[in-house]
Amino acid sequence: MTKLTVGNARIAYRTEGSGPAVVLVHGVGPGSAMWDAWSSALSADHTVILPDLAGSDVAEDDGSPLAVEDLAAQVNAVIEDSGTGPADLVGFSLGAPTAATAAALRPDLVRRLIPVAGLTHAGDEYVRQLMTTWLGLADDPAAFGRLGTLTASSPQFLNVIGHEGAEQLHGFMRPTDARLRQLDLVLRLDVRDLLPRVEAPTLVIGCTRDQTVPVENHREFLKLITGSEYAELDTGHVAMMERPDEFTKLVRDFLDRP
After folding, report:
1. Is 218 known to be catalytic?
2. What are the residue ranges spanned by the domains of the chain?
C-alpha cells in the first residue's frame, strides 16, 4: 500500500494486476474494500488502482468537513503518483460525482469515465430524508447498519441471499466519525456546474431498483456530460454485488473499446 499526502489528508492506494490503468473510486463506507469482491474481474488484464480517500477508514485528516473537490484532487494525485495516467475512472455512489469531478478538473489524467449509481446534487428530497435519517442513527450502530443493508440491496436480492446473508451485510456500515462526514457531504453535494467540463468518453450506469440513490439521479449525469452514453441494470444500489457478470460486461466493453 502506498501512502501520500494531499492537502490536509494522508491517503493510501494499492494496485492489482497489470495493463491499462483503471481507478476504482469508492463511495460512502470504509473505503476501497468495497471493491474487493469484484476488482479481480478487471485485474487479469488491467492495473486496478484502489485508493482510500479522506473519509475512509484508512485515510487520516484533520476532521474538517469533506469536499468533493478535495476528494477529486486526491484521485488525481493517486493517478499522478502511480505514473499510470491517463487512467480510466469507475466511481460508485458518492464515488461517481468524485470521479466525474476529477475528470472535469484534470481532463489530461482521465481517459474514460464510468459513474455508477451516483448523484449530481443533493436536491432529491428522498435522498435528503434518507441521509438525515442515517445521521440520526449515529448512536444506534445496529440500526445504522441495518438501514444500510435495506437501502443498498434490492428486496429481490435480499430474498436471494436470505436472512443469514442479509445479517452479515450490516457490518459494512458503522456510524464512525468518518462515515458521518461522508453522509454530511452527500447532503451538501452539487457538481452540476462541473460536469459540462468533462471531456472523457463517459458511460453512465444506472440501477433501476436503487433505494439509496433513486435512478432518476443517475440519469442526471447523462444530461450534463456532453456525449455521454447510458446503460441501466435491473438491480439495487450495489450493482457489482447483485449482477456482477452484467456489470463486468458493461464496464469491460466500454473500457476496452479501441
Report:
1. no
2. 2-122+190-255
Distance CA 158, CA 188 (A): 30
Answer yes or no: 163 catalytic: no
Domain 2-122+190-255 has CATH 3.40.50.620: no
Judge whether 117 and 205 are in contact, CB under 8 Å: yes
Q: Annotated catalytic, 139?
A: no
As a whole number of angstroms, the distance between CA 101 and CA 127 comes to 20
Given strand 21-25, what is the order of strands in its sheet? 2-6, 9-16, 47-52, 21-25, 87-92, 110-116, 203-207, 229-233
List 93, 153, 154, 228, catalytic entry:
93
Q: What is the 3-state secondary structure (H, E, C) of 63-97?
A: CCCCCHHHHHHHHHHHHHHHCCCCEEEEEECCHHH
Q: CA–CA separation, 8 vs 216, rounded Å?
A: 34
Summarised one tens digit per residue, pLDDT across range 201-231 is: 999 999 999 999 999 999 999 999 999 999 9
Element (H, E) at 130: helix 125-136
pLDDT tens string 109-139: 999 999 999 999 999 999 999 999 999 999 9
- pLDDT tens digits, 145-198: 999 999 999 999 999 999 999 999 988 899 999 999 999 999 999 999 999 999
Query: What cell numbers appear for 61 in the block?
Result: 485528516
